[in-house]
Amino acid sequence: MAVGSKIAILLNGPPRAGKDTAVAVLEDAFGAESETFKFTQPVKDRTHARFGLDCAHDAYEALKDTPLPEFGGMTPREAYIDTSRRLKEEQGEDAVRKLFVAEILASNAQIILNPDAGDDLEAESVADAFGAENVLVIRISRDGHDFSKDCRTWVTSRSLRIVDVTNEEGRRREYESQVVALARSFVDTVRGRTPEAAVPTLAAE
User: In Å, how far are 10, 40, 106, 143, 158 from 61, measured between CA atoms?
Assistant: First the structure.
C-alpha cells in the first residue's frame, strides 16, 4: 500500500551522531509541510498512559536513565522497554513498527521526518507504506560515536535509497547545509522537479 503524495526522510546513525540537529534544520527547511515522528513515540505515549501520566512523549528525556517513583521505581527507559516487550508479546514482534506506521499515515503532513530509524525492518516498514521511491535514508556518521551501547544499527537494505553524511567536528554549518540540500533534492526529484540523477545513492554494503 503506497501513499504516493507522502515523502519520508529517515535519519539513521549512532547516539549523538547529530540526528536531532539534522531533523531540526529539516523542520526549518520544510516548515508546516513536515512533521517529525520517532519510532519510540507511540511506545512512550502508551507507557505514560499506562502509569497515569498526562504529558508529552518527550517529557522525560532529561531523566530517562533516572529511577522515578512515577514509573514504579523504574527509569523511564526501562519502562519504555517494558511496554515495548508487552506490546510484542500481545500483538507480535512487529507491533511497535505497526503503531509508528499507523501514526505517520494518519498525519496530514506531506513530508514525514524521522530522527531514529534503527534498522532495516523499521525503514522498510515505512517504505512498504509510502513506496520505496518516496523514502530517503540519510545515514549519519561521526568520529568517536558508534552503536556499541545501543540496540539500533545501520540501515543497509538494498531496497532503499541511502546516502551517507559525515558530521565533522567544527563543521556544523556545512553538515546542516549538506543534510538540507540532500533532502530538498530528493523531495524535488520525487515531485518531478529535478532529474533522478540529482540525488546520489550509495549502495548499502
Answer: 21, 12, 25, 24, 33
pTM equals 0.82
* Cα separation, 68 vs 79, whole angstroms: 10
CA distance 134 to 105: 13
Q: Which amino acid is at 84?
A: S
Report the alpha-carbon angle 43-167-144, nearest 5.
80
C-alpha to C-alpha distance for 140 and 70, rounded to whole angstroms: 35
Residues 135-184 have pLDDT tens digits of: 999 999 999 999 887 778 999 999 999 999 999 999 999 999 999 999 99
- 111-114 vs 7-12, strand pairing mode: parallel
Q: In this structure, which amino acid lies at residue 51?
A: F
Q: Which residue has cell 514504579?
A: 72
Give the pLDDT confidence score for residue 148 in this predicted structure: 87
What's CA 97's distance to the chain center, in Å?
11
CA-wise closest residue to 141 among 125, 153, 159, 132: 153
Q: Tell me which residue has cell 515531485.
A: 191
